[in-house]
Amino acid sequence: MHSPYSLGPPPNKRLDGCNCNRITSLFPSVSITDIGCNSHSEFEAGNRDYPSIPDFIFRFLPSSSPDFSQFFPFQISTSSSGEEPCYAGVPMSSIVEQGLGVGDVISLLWFKRSLPRYCTKFIEICIMLCADHGPCVSGAHNTIVTARAWKDLVSSLVSGLLTIGPRFGGAIDDAARYFKDAYDRGLTPYEFVEGMKKKGIRVPGIGHRIKRGDNRDKRVELLQLFARTNFPSVKYMEYAVQVETYTLSKANNLVLNVDGAIGSLFLDLLAGSGMFTKQEIDEIVEIGYLNGLFVLARSIGLIGHTFDQKRLKQPLYRHPWEDVLYTK
Q: Would the pTM of this model clear 0.85, i.e. be above it?
């Protein structure tokens, strides 16, 4: 299989020079002919495309010179002076002319392929439902306090984003990992939950500070309804629901939360679309793609909170003393 990396701009792009000499200096046993640059002067003149880096070069990487870090491998987008930008090979004009949306752009830039419309619609629904959850959650609170200190937009946004983690919005990846592992191993909900309990690990995607079994999260219900209507299979989501049924027998607040819903349903999206290999699915879950959805979505709300505080000309925030409890 040919290497996806190239020595410069992608095919059909004009050149300002050639990096072949840099490659051969790093790997003395590799010649310009090996790389595919048979007409070096033509590269220097800008008349030919950059060749791809041969796969065998990457066998040298573990012991290669640190200078190799000067190269900047990429796969998802292309752009050069005077040329139309492309996302995963799809020109900007095509994206606009086809009326594609943010979900389609995410499918190209994150997954390097055009996903079916129900998949990109699900991505867009996730973004809309997770954009904001009021001013009292940790992310919004941080952003509001920072904005009222009259910091700039980026500082206010980042202060809120930095709260995202295992306890706030950042459990989607872990929920997907644990649900996938348990389902694939054929564990019953009892075996899964009790096994996690013995390890001292809370089940990611289960539990909410406010929602209860008799007061479900509307976001979860909307996601489940869309998936049951449009997905070819919802086996991971149904397993998560079975886990929820068991955990609710323990406590009324151990409901499937939005992290668990997105995590399990994204597994169904990846598995049911037929566009990903098992290895690719494992890699996506391991890298942490799914938390990226929450980060992207919540950025919309945090930016809104920043603008809101500045528009209202709110003064510097100072927390009331009566809420402070000194302990020994």
A: no
